Amino acid sequence: MADLTPLAISVLALLEERPMHAYEMYQLLISRHNDRIVKVRPGSLYHTVERLAGQNLVRAIGTERAGNRPERTTYEITPEGSQALTRRVESGIEKYVYEYPLFPVVLSEAHNLDADDAVLRFRRRVEDLDRWLADIDEVVGAARAAKVYEPYWIGGAYVRSQIAAERDWLATVIERIESKDLEWQPRKKQ
């Protein structure tokens, strides 16, 4: 069986809590701000649920219609789904996998910008990261205030530490460029 995608992990974890339909899963992921750690779109969520059903990791247990709303199929996790979730969480925790993010690629090509332009764009990114940090702090603060058991939001704390490290690193790069400690050659015009 192929590795579970981040969205598949999230779906199985929700179904460990209780049976639910895909739209309820979507709403719950959004309300819990899980869209900050996994890409959640209604279409991809429905596709993921169907794929998991095809792999016998979840199964439909009923269909209902309320008023003019579309039919909604309720799913539950199977014993095989519970085992697959556990195995994926275990392997995901213990084995580092580099995920090829975009930022290191564009950062490696930042030398194509003039120093002033690079600094301007680095500053904008720092401002954006500061907004992300404030948002995460608000969500984590609300979880703490509601006395949500910390293992349920530990992923948010991890993401916060990554974003803060990037912001701090970028602030240092900006200082180094401005102080000329990091020599930035003007790009050659053709």
UniProtKB/TrEMBL annotation:
<dbReference type="InterPro" id="IPR005149">
    <property type="entry name" value="Tscrpt_reg_PadR_N"/>
</dbReference>
<dbReference type="InterPro" id="IPR036388">
    <property type="entry name" value="WH-like_DNA-bd_sf"/>
</dbReference>
<protein>
    <submittedName>
        <fullName>PadR family transcriptional regulator</fullName>
    </submittedName>
</protein>
<feature type="domain" description="Transcription regulator PadR N-terminal">
    <location>
        <begin position="11"/>
        <end position="86"/>
    </location>
</feature>
<dbReference type="Pfam" id="PF03551">
    <property type="entry name" value="PadR"/>
</dbReference>
<dbReference type="InterPro" id="IPR036390">
    <property type="entry name" value="WH_DNA-bd_sf"/>
</dbReference>
